[in-house]
Write a structure and sequence with these properties.
The chain has helices spanning 3-22, 27-30, 41-61, 66-69, 72-76, 89-93, 100-119, 126-130, 143-168; strands at 132-135, 139-142. The chain is mainly alpha-helical. A hairpin with a 3-residue loop joins strand 1 (132-135) and strand 2 (139-142).
Length: 176
């Protein structure tokens, strides 16, 4: 198993766990928050999908994001450029997605494209380990690190937050 094989397994697992975490949630539950500075599930999934889209399309491929290309921001009435990084706590906590089914069409498209991108890598990640990219606000790093640190490790943390929110609502939380 090389690093790309590992990334593929973990990214697919993350996407599946997030799908399961969203199953059966009502629109109110998508927007449920607990005391403190936690964000709601709608924000967490939006931020996660937008992050993957930005890393894959804009940073790794130099292409417009699916978000922009598909006018998803207009279709969903959401910010055209924001992805949640650096957003004020109050704004993030108040984040709303009116049409979760339409939003999930974007999410599934972003996830599918990212999984296909990883599946097409045939050198085990060698070229990505040699290529340096800039990920704001983190700075320069190997492209391979951008995938592992931002799109896998960081987003697994957000899955944990989603699991916490499910548990706080009396639902099964973390899936193992």
């Amino acid at each position: 198993m090389d690093i790309i094989d590992f990334f593929r397994v973990e990214q697919t697992r993350l996407h599946q766990w997030m799908r399961i975490a969203l199953e059966g949630l009502t629109p109110e539950e998508w927007h449920y928050t607990i005391e403190g500075n936690t964000n709601n599930t709608a924000f967490l999934v939006w931020h996660s999908a937008r992050t993957e889209d930005n890393i894959l399309r804009f940073i790794l491929q130099g292409r417009p994001t699916l978000w922009a290309e598909g006018n998803w921001h207009e279709r969903l009435g959401l910010p055209p450029r924001a992805q949640g990084t650096g957003m004020a706590t109050e704004e993030a906590r108040a984040f709303q997605i009116a049409d979760t089914a339409l939003f999930m069409q974007y999410v599934e498209q972003a996830w599918s494209e990212y999984e296909a991108y990883l599946a097409a890598i045939s050198d085990g990640g060698k070229a990505l380990s040699e290529r340096v990219v800039t990920v704001k606000p983190l700075g320069e790093m190997p492209a391979l690190q951008a995938i592992g640190q931002v799109c896998i490790t960081h987003l697994h943390i957000h899955y944990g937050e989603m699991a916490l929110l499910r548990g706080a609502m009396g639902k099964k939380g973390l899936l193992l």
